[in-house]
Batch of 2 targets.
Target 1
Amino acid sequence: MTPRERVLTALKRGQPDQVPWIENDVEEEIQIALMDGRTDFTPGEFCRALGMDAFGYHFPTGHTATAGQAMQTSGTASAKEAWYHPKRVTFDFIPPWIADMGTDPKTGRTFVKHGLLTSRDSLKLFDEFLPDPDHPARYDQIAEWLAKYREDYAVFARIRLGSASTFESMGLDVFSLMIFDDPDLVKEIHRRFSEWSARVVQHLNKMDFDFIWANDDHADNKAPWVNMEMYEEFMKPSQMLVAKEIRKPWIFHSDGNLFPILDGLLTLGMNAVHPVQPAAMDINDLKARYGDRVCIVGNIDLDYTLTRGTPEETEAEVKDRIEKVGKGGGYMISSANSITDYCKVENVRAMSRAVKKYGKYA
Amino acid sequence: MASEIETIRDWVIKGKRKEAVEETRKALAAGADPGAIMKDGLIAAMSIVGQKFSSGEFFLPHMMIAARAMTEVVEVIKPLLVGEAAQTKGKAVIGTVAGDFHDIGKNIVKMMMEGAGYEVVDLGVDVGVDKFVDAVRKEAPDFLLMSALITLTMESTRRTIDALIAAGLRAGVKVGVGGAPLTQKFANEIGADFYGADAYDCVQACNRLVH
């Protein structure tokens, strides 16, 4: 099978020739470290070097890499132009947060200082911050990169369904109070983000992506931030605006423990869920209860194994997940939740070796 | 009077701030002891909220509106608290460690600690080792509570404890740690006094350890 066929088979909960390895994100500094200091590699070279089966996210190809989250921007007029004309190879279609952003001077990571969508008056910020989802430039550029770099890998576009944008742009504290004080404002904010993403998806459906990855954190290790009732009222209707537009297979990403709202989430119709953080969700439990409904992606620990553990521990964890969760197909191995700059290079290489060693189906 | 205080407690649990404040004013007018309102109304309410959050009955929005209702009642009774009733249960310094800008977990802990009757000095986010040590020296808190949300930053908790030892301050303060990548095992490894799995767990630990 080609890597692309492998991924598409798993997304349909089938059993490919081997367990695919895909990542939602690989930060650029560690990409460069894994490529022995090179910055001029193609996505295909990167996948081949490690044995991954898909790519999306962004690459330092030809340009200076910066640490930190490429998805978040500062929401200025120049940021809109930067969104229309990406300088670095990327396959992302993530809207900016409508927030006051900061940058850690030591690492270059951007972070939300505080959300700006805190009142009805602040709704005018949508026009100021969100790029035009129908502007052709970004789609044209990324279509060129897609054609140039895809080879036989599965290529994905990253989007948001609107929930993460709502949480971050309001602030979780303001969101939590506003669902009681001004519920219609919360719904309006979510709807606007979701409608934006729905327009983006309409364009993505016409492009040569193999699947879509929707990044929307809903939870922490303990629980979702909202219960099922709140999810059904405040989030699902707007998320559905995006979900019903998607015409390709898609993966839903959220950190944390999703079990309390998973039945509601699954009505969106995703093909797979990611990353199944070990500290938050038991992947064997997930497979037993939901493995016949959704492909499972993830679970190689980022809190300890890949970042503070050893190559031996990494190999053991990969072997365990492949043997238990990969049985019968419907599983793609992945970190939980990304290969960050602070993963140990030797552990990522150990993961690569272990996937090759244990990943083949008999 | 006990039933009036229970009513205040119940309004706070439900997050009904206007009703809680109104009931508080009525109770005070009828001669209720502000200290009793604080202890049996507010602290009791937030304890129940914490239990419900821990058990999965309450979620973040329920906690936030309850905390807000409590804060508004505190504004009413605070000027009337005298003597022992005006004293807090203890003092905590809290912050998210250096290089980490997540604050929601820290803010929830702060909210629950204040709800439990503690004074909390909030150092914010991206708090370096020196700033934690200076705060412990200046504030002489009962507790230092450190939050780290990503693996990249959690080692700062170890460095802070080491710095407290070097400064001769470690013995005078109980150190608690929490956050997504942290575990009891890590807390033991770095010499913390406790690990809080969630905000209520942290409050319970502080209640056990406070003098």
Target 2
Amino acid sequence: MNDQNPTLTIALAGQPNVGKSTVYNLLTGGSQYVSNWPGKTSECQTGCFEFQGETIHLVDLPGTYSLSASSIEEQIAREFIIEKQPDVLLVILDAVNLERNLYLVSELLNLPVPLVLAINRNDLAESQGIHIEPKVLEAAIRVPVISLAAQHGESIQDAIQAAVQIVHHPENWQPDRPTIRPDHQIVLQAVEQIIHNQVPASYPPDWIAIKLFEGDQVITEMMKEKLGSNWQQVHNILVQHDDAFLAVVGGRYDWIGRMVRAAIARPKLGKVTITDKIDRLTTHSVWGILILIAVMAALFGLTFSIGIPVQNWLEKNVIQTAAAWVSTTFVDSPHWIVSLVANGLISGVGTVLTLLPILILFFIGMGLLEDSGYMARAAFVMDRWMHPFGLHGKSFLPLSFSVGCNVPAVMESRIIEEPKARLITVLLTPFIPCFPRLSVVVILAPILFGKHAFLYSLLLFSIPILFLVLYGKIFHELFQGGKHNIFIMELPLYQAPQAKAIVKSVGFRIIDFLKGAGSIILVVSVGLWALSYFPGGNIESSYLSIWGQRLDPVSKVIGLDWRMAVALFTSMLRSENTLSTLSVLYGVGSQLTLTEAVAGQVVPAAGLAFLAMQILFIPCIATVAAIRSESKSWGWTMAYVGLRLVTSLGVGTLIYQACRLFQWGV
Amino acid sequence: MEKPSRSQSLSPNNEDQKKPQIPLGDIPAGQTVIVSQFTGGKEFINRIASMGFASGVLVTVLQNRGHGPMIVSILGSHLALGRHEVELIQVHTQ
């Protein structure tokens, strides 16, 4: 990769949950977090260290079960290996399920990068009666095999030594590679022959041919384009030999079988481990759900009992103090500048800042659930309840976190591997109204509906759920053609969560949030401030209010008083804003309370329509920013904002007009 | 001391394939069976192959309620599989 100075690039590869990140941390001093949830490292982390006078760049690839293109992680890993061509791959294998781990190795061996295999968690395997002989495995595969105990930092240096050796002596690299089963060798060669001259530089032709048999979408598209009219020839062979890919997969397992035959001894019967015992409860059809409810209740309880007071404290003592200080200190400056800083910038920074305590607590909770291994069990228990939404178990956690706050929930959609299923979850998650939105209903319902408040609140809460199901079905049809999402998930062994790992995971997520959403929140805050300030210098005479009043005849159809429309828009800054905007616009103050104002000026029909609208309205900008950073598409983000706007106004109109028709509450 | 058995065979055996095929979803908890073949798309077979499902591999059912997802143990790890998935995996008895 680099011949001028003694620099080597070693990439760490491995399946999820094998202790790859622990190895990375030990070698680089740790700027990466460990995770017990499959596929968490979705981008490559890079670090440096010195080894015997050479600088070594260490790249931590995402954990992947194979190198197909079925998940974003797998695409990242294989593109890195093929296009960046690291000098050597250090593959971390889990001793407890070595055969399955070798499946990834069987794929890696067909790429033009040498490997060193490091078997981790031998102690755990031994305790389960699994005995592995690294030297026998090494002799079989003809690849250096090192026995490792990453948790204790032993023998990692040996692994690096072996990796450096193989880079300096490439002539020693002659591994036993897996091949397609003999009955399909000729077909494979035929395809190779056709594509041979058209394969992009760094890609090995035999690997491309195998991927074509596997039906790999990314590679198929790439070769279609490269081959042009010659594609038909390849296509014909592929159609004729549709079963060839079973020979590919079978060939890999034949190879694994040959490699481990003498190298591993397993007890006839698996021992009942602590994990098995805990799982009997956590995956039980009744206890499992009860435990999940308890865990979620604890998470929400903690978030609200600590997070909200801290949030309020920050709001009062930091944000408002800062805004007040700006207003009093710069009295001589033009009023709009003072207001821009105090109400636009500080409010934007405030949105980010006051979200932090909630986010940190949520991320700690997620870190605990992930690192302990419990999260996979929660997904398992909830799987069957997620199917009505066109989703599966893994989408449960983002959806449930939504009640607390949409922002971490949208970010948590990353746990879903399949890109389209991930996008669907990103878009559906914010339909669950967050606590501040629910509280608007809780506060206004008694004023509007008196003793029937509870009933109407329930009705209002069920509206977003209805749309969740409806849009879930539509998105599923639209994005995936109704295709079933494959649900297969490893249940990792339970482990005691490591404080260090959780602190790091929280740090990474917060940085992610600030990078992805911070600037968007600031820009939109200033924009919305401008609309609610100019030209009059206050919200009552601002563009927002002027436009609101001008649109009054239109909004009368929807049942919206212009003040309510303005309140909806300001709720985008922060969901908590709805009530305070209403208070300002209805002139709540010395003579009037919000209760009196609303009771006196809003009829129940309009109130019901308004509450339905606010629960369905465009989510707050922090959520919109999170949707943008997770979907990586402004197109989807804006389409989504449009969808929410139309849904909200549509439902509001429907409710209001129906009420008028039936003469209810008008 | 009794020596533990060597690693199980990972390649299919012609004799085994003549035995009656049952979907994995029909196997009650506690039973260990042998994976024989799969139906379903290439993407599905790729995914489950990378998680340890290959013809000839032993799989132990840990939980099966007859509906909803089930839990199996395969090649040393525990996997949760959706109901739809377990109907696509054919197994036979040992």
